[in-house]
Amino acid sequence: MATSQLTASSISTRNLASYEGFRPSALQFHSISRVRIATLTQRSFPCFVVKAATASALKYTSVKPLGDRVLVKIKEAEEKSEGGILLPATAQTKPQGGEVVAVGEGKSLGKSKVEVSVKAGAQVVYSKYAGTEVEFNDSKHLILKDDDIIGILETDEIKDLKPLNDRVLIQVAQAEEKTAGGLFLTEATKDKPSIGTVIAVGPGPLDEEGNRTPLPVTPGNTVLYSKYAGTDFKGKDGFEYITLRASDVIAILS
């Protein structure tokens, strides 16, 4: 509760009568702006103090996702580089993973009720710009759709990712380090490869009746995919990986 204290210099003889308990006839003024302070005592004016309520921030005790939405506690960003150098906030990589805190009741497809594909407690990776960020229990959380979750990752190795729905995990083919003429290429001038080996696939998308449709690729396939599709990851094993939707795979190579 905040308290506002009126000062003597702010009182005018024209508005004193509006305050209950004031008796203007008992006051002595030398001018309109100057009041003899000795006459303005708390004993003379029992209603002199005016109190005003101050609004406080709302506190929530629970957040319940609806439909096929999921509440994820965002993993903290790395504050140091792999070499141990402290990173400023602007250079820290935005986290793309976290722990599932709560899930919705699912969605209806045709006559079937389809549950959310993850459970509370699962460690997941999600699309970079998906969802709505909220503050809850003094931590950052994200509310996003089940379809925005790329996969479940229970270890620190991206190659262990279990893709969900129509997602595919691909190990990217290494870029050429030399031109046809034998010149060495820098990292900036190497062409981004769009060929790789399928490591894992999701169970497939849902049809209108809630049934899974198998994907057209399987682990071990060498594939060609759209050049700017998917989400890139750097594995601890030194390889580049990418997760994308099966519809972004253009062809199987053999």
TrEMBL record:
GO terms for cellular component: chloroplast; mitochondrion. Keywords: Chaperone. One of its GO terms (molecular function) is protein folding chaperone. InterPro entries: Chaperonin_GroES, Chaperonin_GroES_sf, Chaprnonin_Cpn10_CS, Cpn20, GroES-like_sf. SMART domains: Cpn10. HAMAP family: CH10. Belongs to the GroES chaperonin family. PANTHER family: 10 KDA HEAT SHOCK PROTEIN, 20 KDA CHAPERONIN, CHLOROPLASTIC. This is 20 kDa chaperonin, chloroplastic. It comes from Crotalaria pallida. The lineage of its organism: Eukaryota, Viridiplantae, Streptophyta, Embryophyta, Tracheophyta.
